[in-house]
């Protein structure tokens, strides 16, 4: 297996689940409320197969191209692929064929393109709306002010089952600043629910910041590094 042997992967997985449980207890929450989405980006099919052997069946990827490359060799595994990265509309066809869920839905044109392709495939998928809670220029996501109108608009696509919101916190050391991003997502969700949108899921928290996200109500943490190890540096793939 490339990068990581099996016992290492098993130990990492157990450790991450234990740390997420601890974060739940610290926040007075039931660990059953918080699931872990393993993020397998940059790791090859054999590593993912090792994770499947541990009982994991949903994997987050930030590039549709990687889902294409891995879904063939792993076709026997019954994996549900979750798109968590910025999505160009010209990738909608592959998403409609291969993904079970998109967490990075952030604009009307993308919803339109996904709906079109999902109709052709005769499928529907779960989606989360990615909201930009960080001030960083590089971060993707819908501006918070646009959320109410976007949610109203999504109601007309029966191929897209809107289940919640997703965000990436600002990448800084100050826990208060990171936590404020997660709090903002929860408050946006609460406001939308008060307007009648049912949004049970909040996908927030990664390897470096998940305890703060759990404290703010995350229902799903997206964990790459802490499970699979460090990714190869960009460009060296
Ligand atoms: C890579 C990635 C993650 C996981 O990051 P780690 O720090 O490795 O846990 C989570 N969410 C998104 C959107 C990502 O692209």
Automatic annotation (TrEMBL):
UniProt-recorded name of the protein: Pyridoxal phosphate homeostasis protein
InterPro entries with a match to the protein in the record: Ala_racemase_N, PLP-binding_barrel, PyrdxlP_homeostasis
Recorded superkingdom: Bacteria
Gene3D superfamilies named in the record: Alanine racemase
Function: Pyridoxal 5'-phosphate (PLP)-binding protein, which is involved in PLP homeostasis.
Domain Alanine racemase N-terminal residues, every copy: 8-232
Alphabetical list of HAMAP family matching this protein: PLP_homeostasis
Keywords recorded for this protein, A-Z: Pyridoxal phosphate
CDD domains hit by this protein: PLPDE_III_YBL036c_like (cd00635)
Annotated positions of the N6-(pyridoxal phosphate)lysine modification: 41
């Amino acid at each position: 297996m490339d990068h990581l042997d099996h016992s290492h992967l098993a130990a990492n997985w157990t450790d991450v689940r234990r740390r997420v449980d601890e974060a739940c207890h610290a926040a007075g929450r039931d660990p059953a409320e918080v699931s872990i989405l393993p993020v397998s980006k940059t790791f090859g099919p054999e590593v993912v197969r090792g994770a499947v052997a541990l009982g994991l069946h949903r994997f987050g990827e930030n590039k549709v191209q990687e889902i294409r490359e891995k879904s063939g060799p792993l076709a026997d595994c019954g994996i549900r692929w979750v798109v968590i990265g910025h999505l160009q509309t010209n990738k909608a066809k592959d998403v409609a064929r291969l993904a079970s869920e998109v967490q990075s839905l952030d604009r009307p044109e993308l919803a339109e393109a996904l709906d079109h392709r999902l109709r052709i495939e005769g499928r529907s998928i779960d989606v989360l709306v990615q909201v930009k809670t960080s001030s960083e220029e590089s971060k993707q996501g819908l501006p918070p002010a646009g959320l109410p109108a976007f949610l109203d608009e999504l109601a007309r696509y029966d191929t897209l089952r809107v289940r919640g919101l997703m965000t990436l916190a600002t990448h800084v050391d100050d826990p208060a600043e990171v936590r404020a991003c997660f709090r903002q997502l929860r408050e946006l969700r609460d406001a939308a629910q008060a307007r009648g949108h049912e949004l049970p899921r909040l996908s927030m928290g990664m390897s470096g910041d998940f305890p703060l996200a759990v404290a703010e109500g995350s229902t799903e943490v997206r964990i790459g590094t802490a499970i699979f190890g460090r990714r190869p540096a960009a460009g060296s793939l």
